[in-house]
């Protein structure tokens, strides 16, 4: 059994205005719709743990990974165009990491199993694209460009048959990184 769920402590505080001003909302778990708690969110403090934040409700849209620290104007720091609308806590994981990536949707085409970071699937595997994956162990960030750059997507243990179904239409992923900050 994975250690993913053993220690799920995390705390993030969201603020309506930049520089930690205005009303605040404290969150210690996943929140699919922050608009019921705050009308807008322009800064936050991660007091413990790691979180993914999204610019749309229900964990959709542009994503940013946030580790412990202060984000006084997260929009300019993270390159997000809109307010944070949902967040997901990244559980602590101290075991092994395993993910199988596929060139096509529905687990088609070439496939390779990863157990560590991959900064460029084209160079390492001669694979032009990654359009589906299965995460067996650990929590990962997938990036649209090599060297862990560009838009990212958070994946946790589970099956991802089509990234299009997750609101990532036309999205290619060219590099993958394990989330090890939480251990």
From TrEMBL:
GO terms for molecular function: structural constituent of eye lens. Keywords: Eye lens protein, Repeat. Pfam families: Crystall. Signal peptide: none annotated. It comes from the Eukaryota. GO terms for biological process: lens development in camera-type eye; visual perception. The keyword Repeat applies. Residues 10-48, 49-91, 138-180 form the Beta/gamma crystallin 'Greek key' domain. Crystallins are the dominant structural components of the vertebrate eye lens. This is Beta/gamma crystallin 'Greek key' domain-containing protein. It comes from Champsocephalus esox (pike icefish).
């Amino acid at each position: 059994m994975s250690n993913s769920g053993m220690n799920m402590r995390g705390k993030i505080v969201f603020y309506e205005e930049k520089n930690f001003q205005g009303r605040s909302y404290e969150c210690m778990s996943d929140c699919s719709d922050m608009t019921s708690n705050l009308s807008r969110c322009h800064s936050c403090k991660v007091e413990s743990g790691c979180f993914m934040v999204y610019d749309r409700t229900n964990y959709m849209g542009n994503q940013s990974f946030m580790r412990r620290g202060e984000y006084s104007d997260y929009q300019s720091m993270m390159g997000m165009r809109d307010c944070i609308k949902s967040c997901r806590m990244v559980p602590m994981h101290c075991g092994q990491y395993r993910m199988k990536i596929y060139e096509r949707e529905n687990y088609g085409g070439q496939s390779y199993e990863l157990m560590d970071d991959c900064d460029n699937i084209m160079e390492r595997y001669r694979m032009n694209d990654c359009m589906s994956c299965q995460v067996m162990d650990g929590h990962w960030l997938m990036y649209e460009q090599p060297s862990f750059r560009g838009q990212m997507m958070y994946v946790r243990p589970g099956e991802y048959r089509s990234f299009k179904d997750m609101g990532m239409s036309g999205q290619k992923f060219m590099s993958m990184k394990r989330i090890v900050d939480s251990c």
